[in-house]
Amino acid sequence: LAQINGETNLTPASTVAQEITGSSAGAYIMAFAAIFAFLSVANAGILSASRYPLAMSRDHLLPKFLRKVDGKGTPVIGIVASASVIALVILFLDPLKIAKLASAFSLLMFALLCIAVVVMRETKLDSYDPGYRAPFYPWLQIIGVISCLAIIVVMGWIPMLFSTAIIIIGVLWYFAVSYTLFRAHETVLDLVCRRLLEQINHT
């Protein structure tokens, strides 16, 4: 967003393109480019979102039917479920507020990924053999966590409450629902907790 003559401009890129070209052609070109870019991002978002229930189902955190894939390895049920939820959110909720919550969710995922790197390295799991190791460990991950959480705080109290609610719901789901209903095998979290307890007992 940008401020022009005291008013909020919702299309700053198109406005700048129009000013540079001196005609509305620049604005139209930028608008078409934005539409195609949005379609690409939306497609990637839907396909990646479907992998969350697929991975959680394989970790025995969600029902088994979500891990089913077709002959080409595509999680059809996960894609349909994810696309349906996205469509309902777009239809019945404010898109601008949803965009801010989606940004907060992405930042929260980045922070959790940084924490996961630290946990995986420190517990020294046998199955943890990454093809790439992030440099400046653990300071890079610590800065990543602090930066993501700080941006969520700056975004306002609604993203803060949303992020907190996501964490609480996830913890409750893990211990109260999936732990008793869907899981019959040890998960990565179980391995991490067991390894941490072993290290504490040895010290």
Q: Characterize the largest beta sheet: strand count, sense, and whether it forms a barrel.
A: 2 strands, antiparallel
Give start-end ranges of low-pLDDT stretches: none
Q: Report the strand count.
A: 2
- How do the helices and strands follow one another from N- to C-terminus? EEHHHHHHHH
User: Helix/strand/pairing class, anyone?
Assistant: mainly alpha
* Strand line-up across the major sheet: 1-2
Round the mean pLDDT to the nearest integer and report it: 79
Radius of gyration: 22 Å
Indicate the percent of residues in helices: over 70%
DSSP summary: helix tally? 8
Rounded to the nearest angstrom, the distance between the terminal CA atoms is 54 Å
Strand fraction equals under 5%
Described by the principal axes of the CA atoms, the overall outline is globular
